[in-house]
Design the sequence.
């Protein structure tokens, strides 16, 4: 059965690859390969002591395993979905075991194996026994990562809508943490080498992803009890996860066969909004931001990454310098989240097309909803973190830049959503092109603050503090002007192109 | 925005104007001609069934007729209003109630929220929206699913909420693509009663379907479509020509004789 499943997966993947942009594929594979090779380098460099090396390698193992499991939870297995086999007369335990073995042969494992070779590279400098322990630890860590990602894909990945909704949100948090840690890897690496964050070092070595590096360190100092304990821990955990897998698999199969249960949407909490066309769109959009897992995920990522990137320098080096800008960074990321609203909504655009004269209301309602959802917490985050930081010089900066970014993003959201509309993939998830659009939108939203920043830079260069306060009304005016002008452009574009955009979305949905 | 009509009433200002007129519509996808120069006139107060095999071009034709798909050539008129002209399209879309096939509804809204959103989006007064939405949900047996998201609706429930959306603003012409697909027999009877009432009040219905028996029960006019062309159109009895609609349809589209599978005999 394993051979049949591998052949099936290979055929479907080959067909999928034929429809994928080869440049996009090469860039993606190249970046992951570079990251894997970069990880090996961490196993070759010198460390002040064994503990520092163990901590750093435990961190990168966590990032790789966390990223792999989170990616699997978000996308699931694109080919061998459990539902595919629900009508076949196959023994479920045998099928589950076969899928687990197929999961071990996933191409993602190759990149992880390259990255995990960092531990073997580190152990090679410590002697033959640590090297042998490192080889065993790498194999066990790879097996654990594979089993966990298979379980995460079935339990949280695309399938039943409710499971996927929860899974997407859980995954968003995990991916955000991994992304923040990966972005701040140099800072964390330095902090771990210097031993300035003992709580983090402890946490990393207690997690199962740290047990491999811990075993190698123990082998180097001849502590064979610790070696045996760490490796046995990995074996037991992997075996326990593999034993749990058939139950998860079976539950997924049963869930797929059950009809959807009545949901629990909370009714009418937006009655304060005007009962007008714009008010109707605003209420609908606020609900979408709260209920659509892709949108909610993006907002969660915005707040976690925005707050963490600005707060981590405080934790690692004691610097408060960037703390006031957490709200602004959150607003920029949340603005980029709104760059493909029509693509996310899919063919329901036909309702706007069939409601004459509704384009203006549709655009303005989407702008209002984004501001209602994002505005309050980014303003609160900015005020709280700036006050907490004690960086009084940051006040004119944040008060000038935040309104420009909020207004700019509110303008860009509907406009960019109508440029190069990216439909969702067949599982309802974002495509690589969608992700690329979000990254471009990140830059575009950040650029909306250019005018007040220019005033602030001039004030700083000329040492004119009054000028820095002039930037505040400039920021407010910039935000208002961008929201109005880009909103106006979006209305014209929606009026003139709605049928064409609907066609793009309908073609993708076939 | 002009206030919507409160209910479909008899035509007084457009006496003799067809409810729907398709004028030389053409649409190709690549090298495939989906709709080839189609002319079709649906009189006011008619119930027309558009029938045809899979891939005949029914959905493409109806999408162009109501303004959801840009034709390569030709246009359509709803009660004399050109669907594809700038001035006429607004009025035409106020007169149309549409249930397209294969296009989504906002998945994360409940049925009540969807109808409220659509009613207010069309500029209807709030109290009218509330009353009509409640009545539509009640009559279509969707009231019990008040807090259920459309994403959790069954296919039949989606058809019914789609029909409710099409009826909410009081259109004069209903264009329904496969309205009875996956709808249970009890609900189908309710839908038929609603459509009968709509016709009795002076409205017009154009409905695509594969079910010939249904057309014979509810429609007074039929158009048979195949390979992007209308092969025959007229009253039900004229198109049937003394046989069943299914037989007449098979004659028109030239259906091959049905065959069994060879291995069943072995």
Sequence:
């Amino acid at each position: 059965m394993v051979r049949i499943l591998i052949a099936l997966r290979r055929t479907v993947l080959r067909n999928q690859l034929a429809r994928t942009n080869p440049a996009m594929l090469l860039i993606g594979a190249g970046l992951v390969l570079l990251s894997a090779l970069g990880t090996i380098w961490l196993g070759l460099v010198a460390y002040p002591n064994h503990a520092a090396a163990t901590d750093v390698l435990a961190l990168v193992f966590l990032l790789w395993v966390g990223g792999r499991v989170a990616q699997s939870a978000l996308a699931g297995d694109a080919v061998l979905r459990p539902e595919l086999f629900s009508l076949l007369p196959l023994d479920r335990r045998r099928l589950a075991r076969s899928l687990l073995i197929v999961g071990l042969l996933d191409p993602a494992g190759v990149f992880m194996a390259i990255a995990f070779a960092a531990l073997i590279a580190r152990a090679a400098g410590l002697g033959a026994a640590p090297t042998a322990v490192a080889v065993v630890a790498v194999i066990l860590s790879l097996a654990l990562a594979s089993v966990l990602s298979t379980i995460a894909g079935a339990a949280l990945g695309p399938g039943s809508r409710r499971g996927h909704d929860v899974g997407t949100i859980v995954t968003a948090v995990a991916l955000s943490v991994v992304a923040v840690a990966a972005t701040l890897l140099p800072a964390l690496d330095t902090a771990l080498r210097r031993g300035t964050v003992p709580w983090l070092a402890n946490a990393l070595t207690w997690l199962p992803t740290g047990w491999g590096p811990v075993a190698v360190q123990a082998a180097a100092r001849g502590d064979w009890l610790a070696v045996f304990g760490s490796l046995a821990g990995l074996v037991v955990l992997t075996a326990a996860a593999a034993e749990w897998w058939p139950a998860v698999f079976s539950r997924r199969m049963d869930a797929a066969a059950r009809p959807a249960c009545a949901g629990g949407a909370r009714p009418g909490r937006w009655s304060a909004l005007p009962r007008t066309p714009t008010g109707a769109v605003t209420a609908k959009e606020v609900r979408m931001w709260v209920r659509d897992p892709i949108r909610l995920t993006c907002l969660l990522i915005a707040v976690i990454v925005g707050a963490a990137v600005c707060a981590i320098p405080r934790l690692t080096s004691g610097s408060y310098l960037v703390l006031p800008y957490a709200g602004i960074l959150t607003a920029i990321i949340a603005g980029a989240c709104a760059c493909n609203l029509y693509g996310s909504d899919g063919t329901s655009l036909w309702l706007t097309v069939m409601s004459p004269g509704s384009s203006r209301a549709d655009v303005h309602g989407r702008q209002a909803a984004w501001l209602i959802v994002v505005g309050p917490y980014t303003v609160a985050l900015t005020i709280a973190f700036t006050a907490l930081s004690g960086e009084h010089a940051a006040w004119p900066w944040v008060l000038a830049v935040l309104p420009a970014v909020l207004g700019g993003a509110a303008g860009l959201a509907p406009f960019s959503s109508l440029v190069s509309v990216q439909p969702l993939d067949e599982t309802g998830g974002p495509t690589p092109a969608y992700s690329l659009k979000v990254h471009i939108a990140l830059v575009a939203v950040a650029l909306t603050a250019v005018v007040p920043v220019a005033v602030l830079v001039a004030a700083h260069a000329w040492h004119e503090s009054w000028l820095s306060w002039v930037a505040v009304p400039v920021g407010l005016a910039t935000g208002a002007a961008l929201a109005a002008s880009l909103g106006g452009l979006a209305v014209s574009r929606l009026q003139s192109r709605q049928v064409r955009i609907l066609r793009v979305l309908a073609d993708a949905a076939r | 925005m002009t206030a919507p009509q409160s209910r479909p009433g008899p035509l007084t200002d457009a006496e003799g104007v067809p409810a729907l007129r398709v004028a030389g519509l053409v649409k190709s996808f690549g090298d495939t001609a989906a709709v080839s120069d189609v002319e079709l006139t649906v009189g006011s107060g008619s119930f027309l069934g558009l029938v045809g095999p899979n891939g005949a071009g029914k959905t493409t034709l109806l999408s162009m007729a109501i303004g959801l798909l840009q034709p390569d050539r030709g246009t359509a008129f709803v009660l004399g209003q050109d669907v594809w002209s700038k001035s006429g399209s607004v009025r035409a879309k106020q007169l149309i109630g549409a249930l397209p096939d294969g296009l989504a509804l906002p998945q994360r809204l409940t049925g009540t929220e969807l109808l409220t959103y659509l009613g207010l989006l069309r500029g209807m007064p709030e109290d009218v929206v509330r009353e009509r939405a409640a009545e539509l949900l009640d009559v279509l047996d969707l009231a019990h699913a008040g807090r259920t998201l459309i994403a959790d609706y069954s296919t039949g429930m989606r058809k019914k909420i789609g029909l409710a959306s099409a009826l909410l603003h009081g259109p004069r012409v209903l264009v329904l693509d496969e309205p009875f697909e996956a709808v249970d027999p009890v609900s189908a009877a309710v839908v038929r009663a609603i459509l009968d009432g709509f016709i009795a009040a002076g409205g017009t219905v154009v409905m695509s379907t594969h079910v010939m028996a249904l057309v014979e029960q509810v429609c007074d006019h039929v158009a048979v479509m195949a390979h992007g062309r209308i092969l025959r159109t007229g009253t039900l009895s004229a198109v049937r020509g003394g046989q069943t609609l299914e037989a007449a349809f098979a004659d028109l589209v030239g259906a091959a004789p049905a065959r069994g599978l060879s291995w069943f005999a072995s």
Remarks:
- Chain B touches chain A at residues 1, 66-70, 89-91, 93-94, 96, 98, 100, 102-110, 112-113, 116-123, 126, 145-149, 151-154, 165 (CB under 8 Å).
- The domain at 20-103+171-252 of chain B is CATH 3.40.50.300 (Rossmann fold).
- The longest helix of chain B spans residues 185-200.
